[in-house]
Design the sequence.
């Protein structure tokens, strides 16, 4: 692992082809549904007391971390969701992150009928190589979990 202070890219992308139709995968890409497929999460729930115009959810991870995430955008036309972390306990070592999960139908070739899933992350400039490595691991595992959850349908 690179030493602290070495500049790293603060953007990352993980992707996978899931052997299921886009509509089956899209059904799970809603913040309150994340705990139904992402094995890192114990539960995902709406934060009570927030306004009807603000979609904030609490992710309780199995390691005890609790994060509040804000849905920034959700498009049933373009098949993506974007969310940011607005608080974390324990505190994050960086200032901010923005994640997007985007789905694309595979329309031809050997994987026709499958779904291409892309999970990106953009982190503030104070994120180090360890943060990016952890994010890569979590997204890779999350995509495997998503594929497994869809295959059980």
Sequence:
């Amino acid at each position: 692992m690179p030493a602290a202070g070495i500049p790293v890219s603060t953007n990352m992308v993980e992707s996978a082809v899931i052997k299921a139709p886009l509509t089956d995968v899209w059904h799970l890409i809603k913040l309150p549904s994340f705990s139904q497929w992402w094995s890192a999460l114990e539960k995902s729930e709406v934060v009570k007391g927030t306004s009807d115009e603000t979609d904030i959810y609490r992710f309780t991870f199995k390691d005890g971390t609790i994060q509040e995430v804000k849905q920034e955008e959700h498009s049933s036309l373009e098949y993506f969701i974007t969310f940011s972390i607005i608080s974390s306990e324990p505190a994050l070592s960086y200032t901010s992150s923005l994640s997007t999960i985007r789905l694309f139908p595979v329309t031809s070739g050997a994987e026709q009928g499958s779904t291409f899933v892309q999970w990106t992350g953009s982190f503030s400039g104070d994120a180090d190589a360890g943060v990016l490595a952890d994010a890569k691991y979590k997204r890779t595992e999350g995509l495997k979990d998503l594929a497994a959850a869809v295959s059980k349908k």
